[in-house]
Amino acid sequence: MIIKIRLFAGIAELLNTTVLDFSIDQLPISVDQLKVLLSSTYPEASSQISVSFFAVNEEYATGEMMITVNDEVALIPPVSGGDGHKSLVERSSDGMYVITDESLSIEEVYSKVLNNNHGATLSFVGTTREMTGDKRTVHLEYEAYIPMALTYLEKIGTELNIRWPGTICAISHRIGKVDIQEVSVIIAISSAHRDICYEASRYAIENLKQSVPIWKKEIWDDGHKWKGVDQQETWDPLSR
């Protein structure tokens, strides 16, 4: 029996495919069992597979979860931003959360959270830096599992409103090539008071980096590297 597994970032690059047709004896199969089979079949990728999580139907899956015939399966390496090639703009149903390969506008995202009864509005803007230690970055490339990423961006907004009722959040993230000083992510927050704005903004970016399936490749003068896999061996998006 063949199941299709979507691959991203460094694993997709290593196995030279974004959709893997993987043969198993029968379904259902548990996530943990599939992970063991995948690692033994592709030992060259086993170290990356070991720190990755499966997503089933666009939700992070526990090891005990059973995968059935009609499930959509994806292998999610530790997240932190990969590459897009065709122009796109994908939005949540309310337009507050966007993934695009077009340049981002701070004013556009900021305008989504303005409210007559809010006394504080804050924008966090993430840009590409040139030097990280002694490494010179030429540019970054971002890749996303777009439908799941939008779902998890919306979840961040929902969680913010539970923690700080009335808070408004909008997030836009760029994919594809992002040059030095260009903007990769904008998080806009508004609330009645400034202390909540600061807390909510930090909460949003930290949780985005922890759980949203967006990957980052750093392109250097002398090579490249996908961020995440070998730096977050204890990565666990289900622990949030």
Automatic annotation (TrEMBL):
Residues annotated as transmembrane: none
Family matches, as InterPro entries: Beta-grasp_dom_sf, MoaE_sf, Mopterin_biosynth_MoaE, Mopterin_synth/thiamin_S_b, ThiS/MoaD-like
Catalytic activity: 2 [molybdopterin-synthase sulfur-carrier protein]-C-terminal-Gly-aminoethanethioate + cyclic pyranopterin phosphate + H2O = molybdopterin + 2 [molybdopterin-synthase sulfur-carrier protein]-C-terminal Gly-Gly + 2 H(+)
Pfam family, one: MoaE
One biological process term in Gene Ontology: Mo-molybdopterin cofactor biosynthetic process
Keywords tagged on the record: Molybdenum cofactor biosynthesis, Transferase
GO MF assignments: molybdopterin synthase activity
SUPFAM superfamilies: MoaD/ThiS (SSF54285), Molybdopterin synthase subunit MoaE (SSF54690)
Enzyme class per UniProt: transferase
Listed EC numbers: 2.8.1.12
Family per similarity comment: Belongs to the MoaE family.
Protein name: Molybdopterin synthase catalytic subunit
Organism listed in the record: Paenibacillus antarcticus
Taxonomic classification: Bacteria, Bacillati, Bacillota, Bacilli, Bacillales
